[in-house]
Amino acid sequence: MVTAMERRLGEMLVNDNIISKGDLDQAMVRQEKDNASLGRVLVEMGLATEWEMAAAIGKQLNVPFITLSHYDIDRQVIESIPEEIVRKYKIVPVDKTGDTLTVALSDPSNIYLQDELRILTKCKIIPVISFESDIMEAINHYYSPDGSSNFEEMLKDITDQEMQVLQQQQESLEITSEDIRTDEDDLSVDADDAPVIQLVNLIISEAIKAGASDIHIEPYEKSLRLRYRIDGVLQEMTPPPKKFQNAITSRVKILSEMDIAEKRLPQDGRFKVHIQNRNIDFRVSTCPVAHGEKVVIRILDQSKLSLNLQDLGFDKGILDQFLGYIHKPWGMILITGPTGSGKSTSLYCALNTINDSRKNISTIEDPVEYQIKGINQVQARPDIGLAFAAGLRSFLRQDPDIIMVGEIRDLETAEIAVRAALTGHLVLSTIHTNDAPSTMSRLTDMGVEPFLVTASLLMILAQRLVRRICNNCKEEFAPSAEMIKSIEMEDYTETKIYHGSGCQICRGTGYKGRIALYELLGVSDRIRDMVIAGATASQIKRAALEEGMISLRKAGIIKIVEGLTTIEEVLGVTVSDTG
């Protein structure tokens, strides 16, 4: 949508004979389509230069123009704004005098950004205008002394001749014995290693250092994008140049024992490395996209996995209930939530808690993410007929006491799990539903008879992950009346609410780490009768709330009151209990 300010800017450019009325109309059509700023569209279409746009915007807003390359910015000024914020909004702090901070922007009309910077830095913001290309050059020059400059220094060492050799190796598909994966590749960067190997090693080691759970390497027409998922949110990092795209993808495929010649189909693989005195597993997925292959690497760091239920963030009352259910001799326990909500971690913690040499515990997973001593863990292989249902059947002939199924996805798996629970086994699994009460409806919708569901099911645990407020920049916050109303916290008007203002430790996000919200539904006789009678999920939820169930929304409010997370985080993952 073209704003009034952008419309006035366009009229100014027409009046100054920089563009024609037809050029402006054409640019506005493109601006509506691409949802970009009018200035950027005009430059990309070649209708105006960066200099003309900067001069026009500066004149319109009475903001001075500067050339960043003429400045040597002090390191303390650079550190006044976290790198994550700088890269996200494409800005550069230029000078700081007392509590006044001068910031270079390509679009100084963004008053909301200036307000955010004022809150973040606790300084008065003086905007100046600069070319976006100059801003990006300055960002790459001043920021990431431990990360991007490592990339830059490394890339300087890779000559065009080496790149040509790498491309020839890819075309001939000749892989030396040095390239073949071992069980534990050492990621320490060695000057004698091939440059691309060093580059991939650096991408991985920087992700581990940042505490990332996933690495995304995404090819576009003229660039690569590198993103790390940190605390559940993707954050952009300094990417390698486009010319390294094929070499990086091939190196990751070699590590993961994939077919580097196959670029038309998705592939999956995994590898293990030894870094910082610990072994870390990686799951790799490649997928063909418009301009190459996208690579996603899941980082599975077992050293960071706490198998203690007390560390998961359970409230004491819910934890006591959960412990009571997982120590039952038979029945089915289900954990539900979307992808990335921590279901597998909760299952592993539960299994570790009840792990006993007197019990035979078997799991079938896709994939086996973490290995637990004393438990028989089977990797599902649907391509050879070893799906969840087949693994379950096999387990029932192995004299099991406790069975864990990675996920109930279909009727066959659900029926076998239910019957195993009814024949004296404790069965734990996950299922994808919105909340605990809707899980029973999901099972009956799959085709499982309601009387079998009620006879086997002991407990359902729904969970979500929310980001934890950074302790370093945590401060009291006064939410608006609309926010209080939207989360139904009118009864907590006297309670102190907190948020994170953003700092270097949390990369300017205001959050550091995550905490879980839990909704535990014990299947009572009343609930069983309702399921058999065909009650809806909303009716079951009302009954469960009357019996004392703490909903996901209520659990989130408790965490807000405790000062552990924010209203925005809870609103993002929960729904109202009143519908």
How many helix segments? 23
The percent of residues in helical segments reads: 25-40%
* Principal-axes shape call: globular
Q: Mean pLDDT score, rounded?
A: 82
Query: Low-confidence parts, pLDDT < 50 over ≥5 residues?
Result: 145-149, 159-193
SS class: alpha/beta
Give a count of the beta strands, DSSP E runs of length 2 or more: 19
CA(first)-CA(last) distance = 33 Å
Based on CA atoms alone, the radius of gyration comes out at 28 Å
Notes on the structure:
By secondary structure, this protein is of the alpha/beta class. Helix content is about 40%, strand content about 20%. The chain contains 23 helices and 19 strands. The strands form four sheets. Strands 4-8-9-10-5-6-7 form a seven-stranded mixed beta sheet. A seven-stranded mixed beta sheet has the order 13-12-14-15-11-16-19, sandwiched between helices. It has a three-stranded mixed beta sheet with strand order 1-2-3. Helix 7 links the parallel strand 2 and strand 3. Helix 16 packs across helix 18, helix 20 runs antiparallel to helix 21 and helix 22 runs antiparallel to helix 23. The radius of gyration is 28 Å and the shape is globular.
Keywords:
single chain; alpha/beta; seven-stranded mixed beta sheet; 23 helices; 39% helix; 22% strand; globular
Can you lay out the helices and strands and say which pair or pack?
Elements: H1 4-15, H2 21-34, H3 38-44, H4 50-61, H5 75-78, H6 83-89, E1 91-97, E2 100-105, H7 111-121, E3 124-129, H8 132-142, H9 148-156, H10 160-172, E4 185-186, H11 195-209, E5 214-219, E6 224-230, E7 233-237, H12 245-255, E8 267-275, E9 278-289, E10 292-300, H13 316-326, E11 331-336, H14 343-354, E12 361-365, E13 376-379, H15 388-395, E14 402-405, H16 411-422, E15 426-431, H17 437-446, H18 450-456, E16 457-469, E17 474-477, H19 481-486, E18 497-500, E19 511-522, H20 525-532, H21 537-546, H22 552-561, H23 567-573
Parallel strand pairs: 2-3, 4-8, 11-15, 11-16, 12-13, 12-14, 14-15
Antiparallel strand pairs: 1-2, 5-6, 5-10, 6-7, 8-9, 9-10, 16-19, 17-18
Helix pairs in contact: 1-4, 9-11, 11-12, 15-16, 16-18, 17-21, 18-20, 20-21, 22-23
